[in-house]
Design a protein that fits this description.
The complex is a heterodimer of chains A (118) and B (115). Chain A is an all-beta fold and 118 residues long. Helix content of chain A is 0%, strand content 53%. The chains are: A mainly beta (118), B mainly beta (115).
């Protein structure tokens, strides 16, 4: 049963510290998405990649957030320095095109990283 | 840009009641449509999806949704809800012709079912 995995599942840190969240997409999926979920804002798209190249990161605060895909099996989201307002659940999702002409857009979500910044 | 609206923020029902959650999207082209469910403390899981064909789509756990193109709607229904259906439900849409693969999510509807 293929799944998206995320580590860590929970992270508590102090303001100013660096936080790195990792995601392993489903093998064979070539598109990876990072979302942030909060009570106030709901589900927000932060960034996404296709074949490891960033397609759009306009939803991400550039001054402190960065997202990368060092290889096809690993996506990272880094916050440096972290702030209390970054406290949220961060989800990674992966997907793939199922034909050359049409994108079906189905996404598979990981379990999330619950981040608390004190 | 596309947008998805879910008009009900919180719905409270008793067990065995019928459910209908509204979803409207703003894109005029061909769309793929999805409903995801998020149980308390868990991640989003796909409930059902519409790509083409029969506009009445059946998903898991007795859910179904109807795509009405003229109304830009994709409402989720279940004839008889259970306590275990308590969750947050997200509608999502994507441009079927786009290669970007991005989904546009609604704000979600929290469903609470009382036993």
């Amino acid at each position: 049963d293929a799944r998206v995995t995320q580590t860590p599942r929970h992270k508590v840190t102090e303001m100013g510290q660096e936080v790195t969240m990792r995601c392993q997409p489903i093998l064979g999926h070539n598109t990876v998405f990072w979302y942030r979920q909060t009570m106030m804002q709901g589900l927000e798209l932060l960034a996404y990649f296709r074949n490891r190249a960033p397609l759009d990161d306009s939803g991400m605060p550039k001054d402190r957030f960065s997202a990368e895909m060092p290889d096809a099996t690993l996506a990272t989201l880094k916050i440096q320095p972290s702030e209390p307002r970054d406290s949220a659940v961060y989800f990674c999702a992966s997907g793939t095109r199922t034909s050359e002409s049409v994108s079906y857009n189905e996404q598979f979500f990981g379990p999330g990283t619950r981040l608390t910044v004190l | 840009a596309q947008s998805v609206s879910q008009h009900n923020h919180h719905v409270i029902l008793s067990e065995a009641a019928s459910l209908e959650l509204g979803c409207n999207y703003s894109y005029g082209g061909t769309v793929n449509l999805f409903w995801y469910v998020q149980y308390p403390g868990q991640h989003l899981q796909l409930l059902l999806k519409y790509f083409s064909g029969d506009p009445l789509v059946k998903g898991i756990k007795g859910f179904e949704a109807e795509f009405i193109k003229s109304k830009f709607s994709f409402n989720l229904r279940k004839p008889s809800v259970q306590w275990s259906d308590t969750a947050e439900y997200f509608c999502a849409a994507a441009d079927r012709g786009s290669t970007l693969g991005r989904l546009y999510f609604g704000r979600g509807t929290q469903l609470t079912v009382w036993p």
